[in-house]
Specification:
With about 280 residues, the protein is an alpha/beta fold. It is built from twelve helices and six strands. The protein is globular.
């Protein structure tokens, strides 16, 4: 523990960091403090890049849809929060739809998502998307086999039409191991501020892990293509997943003042990979 005398002797942030570095072997908790400091320092520079990126999106009237998919507790929501934290809310939205209404159940499946697509000059973050029908719904019995088959036929064509109308779709799959997911569930249950995040469906996801994997693999093989590829994020380390997914998005575009705020926006290939059949996923 740092004594009051030591604290009083540390007059600057640099002095404090030097002290923690020097003493981290004798106190392992200091390393976690240093890691968090490094993470926050890198995050703020990437968020500054996102501000410049958003200005460019507005100026050029780009339409950007970023889809966040993955198992429960894989880190989707936390990553979206870091993406949007400092963006202009007038030019971005987060879409997290509830289960369909009775009216929506009798509409074309994509209807309720079409009205949420980005307008010109806008970024939309989908916290889950139409891909619910590719994995969650068939596993949980929320759709029929015929509805699933129809969706899998239609979704590549649907995304191709969006691509041809200049809507860029970035599709992330956050990959988390079964053990890490269970650990995160347990932490949620112990945290009075996060208990609401846990539901019986979450626990059922652990029980039906292999079935989820089967449908996930089918989704990748049938909906990954050159104009709308799947990008797999290793999210066992949530902080690295946040940073590297932001870098991936920024790396795709030649926006004004690119790279002015941070040294590198090239994503780590150990964390971010385009899907291919031999990719080793954590949630295999």
């Amino acid at each position: 523990m740092i004594t009051e005398e030591v604290i009083n002797s540390l007059k600057t942030n640099t002095a404090l960091l030097n002290y923690l570095n020097t003493e981290k072997e004798s106190n392992p908790s200091y390393q976690s403090i240093l890691d968090k400091y490094d993470y926050e320092k890198e995050l703020i520079t990437l968020q500054a890049e996102l501000v410049d990126f958003q200005r460019w999106v507005q100026k050029e009237n780009k339409k950007i849809a970023i889809i966040f998919e993955g198992r429960d507790a894989s880190g989707k929501g936390g990553t979206i929060k870091r993406f949007k934290e400092h963006l202009n809310p007038r030019a971005m939205r987060v879409v997290a739809l509830n289960k369909p209404t009775e009216v929506e159940k009798n509409q074309w499946y994509f209807n309720r998502y079409i009205k949420e697509l980005p307008n010109a000059g806008e970024i939309v973050f989908f916290d889950r998307s139409w891909y619910n029908r590719a994995v969650v719904e068939p596993v949980m019995g929320f759709c029929s086999k015929q509805q699933y088959k129809r969706f899998m036929i239609q979704v590549p064509e649907f995304e191709n039409m969006l691509y041809e109308s200049d809507t860029l779709i970035i599709k992330f799959w956050f990959s988390v191991s079964k053990e890490e997911q269970q650990l995160r569930f347990e932490k949620r249950l112990k945290n009075p501020l996060k208990k609401w995040k846990f539901s019986p469906v979450d626990q059922k996801g652990q029980e039906l892990w292999d079935e989820f994997t089967n449908y996930k693999d089918k989704m990748f093989s049938r909906t990954h293509n050159s104009f709308s590829p799947w990008v797999v994020i290793n999210s066992n380390d949530k902080k690295r997943a946040r940073l590297e997914s932001i870098k991936y998005v920024l790396s795709l575009f030649d926006y004004d003042n690119k790279g002015l705020n941070c040294k590198s926006i090239l994503p780590d290939p150990n964390i971010v990979q385009r899907y291919f059949r031999n990719t080793v996923h954590l949630d295999k």
